[in-house]
Write a structure and sequence with these properties.
The protein is mostly beta strands and 525 residues long. It is built from nine helices and 30 strands.
Amino acid sequence: MSQPFAELVNHTFQIFQEGDIVRGRIIAVREREVLVDIGYKSEGILLREEFADPSEIQIGNELDVLFESFDDEQGVVLLSKKKVDRQRCWNDVLAHAQEQMVVDGRIFRKVRGGFMVDIGMDAFLPASLVDLRPVRNLDQFLGFSGKFVIVKINHKRRNIVVSRKDYMERERHDARRGQIANLKIGQVVKGRVKNITDFGAFIDLGNLDGLLHITDLSWGRVGHPSEVVKLGEEIEVVVLALDKDQGKVSLGMKQRLGDPWETVPEKYSLGSRLSGKVVNILPYGAFVELERGVEGLVHISEFSWTKRVSHPSEMVQIGDVVEVVVLNLDPEARKISLGIKQAQDNPWQEVRKKYSVGDRVRGKVRNLTDFGAFVEIEPGIDGLVHISDMTWTPKNQKPSDLLGKGDEVEVMILSVDPEAQKISLGMRQLMEDPWQNLTQSCLPGSLVPGRVSRLANFGLFIQLENGLEGLAHVSEIPGVSSKALEKSFQVGDRIVVQVLNIDHETRKIALSLKDVPTSSSAPTR
């Protein structure tokens, strides 16, 4: 008895499940599809786009495909060649590939956040890893074929992340190491200004960048690197230092020219008169550029013979061209001391010729101090009238009590010292000494009225009505100790005192309150 037809069919054709990989043979080629015989009751359909290489589509060719599903309505089997290839590629990746490995690939599709790259299977390339620098137009990389680095393999999700940027950095690093290995200190190389900062400029030497520090741009003063080099400019520089481990190169531009300080001793000698430009001003002086790279300092004390300069900006401004004289030279320390006043006539050299002791001159009070007054007797020439030379009868007054700033006064020359730039003046010397006349009324033993002008721990200074001042020692003040003087007397108190003695040689008057009637010696205010 023959077997049922259904059982015969099941024995004739193989039974497959979804997900099985089966062997098949191409039996027909259509416009968009390829028919494959897999030994099943129906032919399998494979889309032509599944073939990366169109030459593989030949009738009779055998291939492995994935049994995806059976379409009951159409009565056909849906197959996939790509999924089989991807599975095999993934297995191959697991067997041979590893992270940081370099692979060949082609960017074939743009997706959210980056690209898909065909490396034998699909891999993801983030947009941030497509180039060394951020890219605005990502479309330009579609279709690019080249080298990529596998940066991550996710076994659970079966995906791979690759980076073109990492490969480029490796290439640049290798090229940099190769180039820096061939450089030598002192070698002159050409480069292009790549970037300019406040501290220097970065020079593109090809695969390698070098730093040209601001201090190595010029022997002269440089405010900003852009004063010397321009972006994109091609320049020649000298290799100053190499760090092959870090891949760093220090470059110099001024080193291509001779150090100007080497010829300074030949060009400049002590006392030589020169012309220079003011390039910097500080509170203590101004720097003058004599030539590119050679500067000297004019100290604040070397600006004027006569004017008291509180800040160099009172005399010069940056950019001024001034005449100077070399005062001191130290090439080893790269220092030159300059003077501006030495390039001008010293008016003090004429002072000795113009003024003699005893001369009467007129001048204007320029400044007042606690010890006296400065009087300008000609432009730039001041003399000092000490407080002791203002009047014959000092009354414990300050210079400001006797003179005012701007007052016109007549004075006498007491001494002249051009080397020290000093002139001593006197005012009382122009008046008759009143001492003899004033003391005639102050006979020893006489009672005279006065006013307390000063208090000291040893007694009272009394200003008499004739303008003279005497001292009543504490021993001549009955009933009062030195500690109690301030309690009993105040400056300005009116009292009557007795003249004990007058010393004409020392011009001192000794006074007493002992033999003075109580009513007269009591202070009144």
